[in-house]
Amino acid sequence: MGLGDLAGKAGGIAALPGRLLKKLFAKPLVRICVLIFAGICIIVPIITAFFVISAKEARKKSELPAPDIPRGIDADSIFLPEEPDFLPQAILLREPSPVWTEEETRRYWTDPADAAEGFWLKNIEKTIDTLLEKVR
Question: What is the dihedral of CA 50, 56, 58, 64, to 10 degrees?
Fold first, then answer.
């Protein structure tokens, strides 16, 4: 096995694709299919590029020009003003007394036992009745 034999085999391997293509393109149907596929591979990227470029140009035309007004917002227009650190004092109608007399307590005191017989019992019964009506 000499160097010439290797060169001959390498040349035969290199010529193999050419021989295969000649055999393949000998058939007219295969030739037409390959030409259609090649045409699609060339035309589709060109059409895609055309639509992408035209969409970019349409977007540029539809954009509004930037106004010359500054875009900053003043913090005073967003946030409420600080509250004062002081609260006005409550004005009392009378001076509070630390100890009440018996007369003052009688004036404002209602015995719970006496009140329960009238007002509170009516309110409790009314509330229970409305709750039971809602449950039905």
Answer: -170
